[in-house]
Amino acid sequence: MDFSFEQRYELNGRRVSRDEWLRSFRDQPDEVQAGAFEEIKTEVEALRCAIHDQSPKVTIKTADGETRMTIESCCEEMEERAEKMAAGE
C-alpha cells in the first residue's frame, strides 16, 4: 500500500522548501541517502500491532532518481502508526 503525508523540511534547524531540501539531499552521496531510507525502514518494521502481533513490511524502490516507500500492514490502525513513524511524527 502506498501512502502520502505532509512533511516539514528543515536544514540545520531552519525550515526550508521541499525543493531546497531535495537539492541538499540529492547532493549527498548515494550511501547517505540509502542509509536514511534504511533507518526509516528499520524503525517502522520494529513496530508491532497490539491486536495482531505483526510488524509492517517496508519496501523501498528507487527508479529514475525517485525513491518510493511502500508499507504493508495487517490493519488500518497499524498502517496509520507506520505512516506517522515514516513521516517522522
Estimated structural class: alpha+beta
Show unreliable segments: none
Strand content: 15-25%
Order of helices and strands: EEHHEEH
Radius of gyration from the CA trace?
14 Å
State the helicity in percent bands: 40-55%
Mean pLDDT over the residues: 80
Describe the global form: elongated
Largest sheet: 2 strands, antiparallel
3D structure, described in words:
- With 89 residues, the protein is α+β, with helices and mostly antiparallel strands.
- Helix content is 40%, strand content 22%.
- The strands form 2 sheets. It has a two-stranded antiparallel sheet with strand order 1-2. Strands 3-4 form a two-stranded antiparallel sheet.
- Strand 1 and strand 2 form a beta hairpin.
- It is elongated.
- The two termini are 19 Å apart.
Descriptive labels:
single chain, two-stranded antiparallel sheet, 3 helices, 89 residues
Compact overview of the structure:
By secondary structure, the chain is an alpha+beta fold. The protein is built from three helices and four strands, in the order ββααββα.
Task: Compile the SSE list and pairings.
Layout: E1 9-11, E2 14-16, H1 18-26, H2 30-45, E3 57-63, E4 66-72, H3 76-86
Helix pairs in contact: 2-3
